[in-house]
Amino acid sequence: LVMPRQPPIKTALRAAPDMEDLTRRVFCSRELNMANIEAVGFDMDYTLAQYNEAFDMLAFEGAKDKLIDMGYPSEEIQKFKFDPLQHTRGLVIDKRRGNILKMDRHKYVRRAYHGTRELSRAERKAQYILDAGATPTFVGNDYVNVDSLFQLVDASLFAQLVDVLDEGGPSYAQAFRDVRHAVDLCHQDGVIKDQVAIEPSKYIIPDDNLVPMLTQYRLAGKKVFLLTNSLFDYTNVVMNFLVGKDVNDRAWVDLFDVVVVGAGKPAFLGDGRRDMLRVDAGTNMGTLHNFVGKPVSEVGGPAFLQREGKIFQSGTWKELHEMLEVGSGSEVLYVGDHMYGDMIRSKRSLGWRTTLIVPELEPELVLDAQLDLPLRHVVAEKEKECEEAELAVQELRLSLLSQGLDFLESDEREALEKAQEESREALKEARDALHRAYHPHWGPLFRSGNQASRFAKQVVDYSCIYTSRASNLLATSPSRTFRPPSDFMPHDDDERPPM
Ligand SMILES: Nc1nc2c(ncn2[C@@H]2O[C@H](COP(=O)(O)O)[C@@H](O)[C@H]2O)c(=O)[nH]1
Ligand SMILES: [Mg+2]
């Protein structure tokens, strides 16, 4: 058996074109009857629009310049490199300690890095097992969840900056604030968006199935809306590129019944007062017209849209529900990528049905399939050997007990315990090899050892269905019922037929 030294993540898909059917599947974690859905909404960035590494580099390099302007040492910062494989979604940044963590679904820290150095098991335990043996809750100001692919840039800059600050400088928490500020500015001052506007094809991955996918919902009688935090000018650039039209065309607007740009999620999904503005798309920049004082309900949903146009900025879900004429959140299906801003808030506050877009699923599913035979079977074999070694020790203990003899005095004990220790070590090595085959630092996105990862738990808890690309929905009927596999308990028998 040859253990892969480098994870085949990037090449996995190219090497396995026959896996396309597998990687484009839509998975269900909560039953969803599409017949009950009146309106289907889409987030734009990292949902309809997938970006490549060149896009991340705009934010990364732009933020490096800003950190140098803030006074961080130029010589060190210039050396920072962006490696898209260095971090993954679902990790948690511990700002105070300068660490990045991967947890299982019980919030037990399974892997941790201080900056770019992996912490040993002992270091991890010293920092993340409290005196009474409990684990911290990981809520509060010290922690940041990597909930979107945009944040991989923050994680990478922070990790490399922590290495520099270990030699002295401001606190890790201050460094995180500065990284956040630098990246935040890049999203606002044109460092990223001006470049995308000049040459969208350099940064956005085209997808021919998007337009038919959006159209099928309209044809099935559902309202379709776009709800994005991007402002109109940038939305216009990205959407025109995705529908294959010139930037002045705006044919993309016809794909939607309502468009909300600059939505300001998650606040849009809350109950605070936020005025909604109508956007006049007559200009590329989208001139804003205030329609405060003219509630949609008073002027009559769809009639209002016809008369006033259908592109809006800001506001809240209340105006959106009225324009879409939906009676309850359960009639809305929202497709997004941000774990908190798109999934958790919309489900918790409004009861929206949700679809999470997880591009990372594609390489992960290929690896699941490719690694199925060799590495996973080695792990299963080592688990069995470990169990047998433990059983042998226990049998000796019970046998001596029944004879009234002392286990600790027994000659056989040492040999059996040595075998037990060796089998545990072999199992650990096999599990580590499987882990590294998925990702050199963090292992599989959806698993942490034998447990579901914290990310996997969030996927199951907050997304009704999930898939690698929004356009995969084209292959599913707009009236189908998605049904999850049956839940099982550890005591359920694998062989038992479903009830
Ligand atoms: N001001 C900031 N904007 C950010 C940051 N990270 C991402 N973004 C922008 O948000 C929208 C995402 O839109 P959506 O379609 O996913 O709702 C996009 O315009 C990003 O540029 C940030 O750190 N600061
Ligand atoms: Mg998004």
UniProtKB/TrEMBL annotation:
Bias (Basic and acidic residues) occurs at 489-499
Q: Where does GMP bind?
A: 45
The positions flagged as active site in the entry are: 43 (nucleophile), 45 (proton donor)
Name the residues that bind Mg(2+). 43, 337
Q: Where is this region: Disordered?
A: 476-499
**The UniProt record lists the keyword Hydrolase:** yes
Give the UniProt keywords, A-Z.
Coiled coil, Hydrolase, Magnesium, Metal-binding, Signal
Q: Which cofactor does it need?
A: Mg(2+)
Q: What does the entry comment about cofactor binding?
A: Binds 1 Mg(2+) ion per subunit.
The molecular function GO annotations come to: 5'-nucleotidase activity; metal ion binding
Pfam family example for this protein?
Answer: 5_nucleotid
Similarity field? Belongs to the 5'(3')-deoxyribonucleotidase family.
Give the protein's recorded name: 5'-nucleotidase
User: Which organism is the protein's source?
Assistant: Pelagomonas calceolata
